[in-house]
Design a protein that fits this description.
31% helix; 100 residues; globular; alpha+beta; 3 helices; three-stranded antiparallel sheet
């Protein structure tokens, strides 16, 4: 799905961006400038990632971790429905918020 080019650096785009991210299942892809480029992306890991990268929590976190292993230049931010926000890069967790 090709979305409108909402920019995380433009205050007027933040409300529509928040709305669209809450409505679509799958990953959202932003370019290096922070502009939304794709929505609803399914992250399919390589056979190597499935074998070498252990699961992390639920499906979202595991998919993000394995995707970042396959694409080490990607920074992946996972927003869980019921808990933490996790930042993953190169298959490793860089940071995680605390549950409230």
């Amino acid at each position: 799905l090709v979305p409108p080019p909402l920019d995380i650096g433009r205050p007027a785009d933040l409300a529509p961006l928040r709305h669209v991210l809450g409505q679509v299942d799958g990953a959202a892809v932003f370019d290096s400038a922070g502009v939304l480029r794709e929505l609803g992306v399914r992250l399919v890991p390589s056979v190597e990632a499935e074998a070498d990268v252990d699961p992390l929590g639920g499906t979202r976190h595991t998919s993000a971790r394995r995707y970042s292993f396959d694409d080490p230049w990607a920074t992946v931010i996972v927003v869980s429905e019921d808990g933490p926000v996790t930042v993953v890069r190169n298959g490793e967790v860089l940071g995680r918020s605390e549950r409230e």
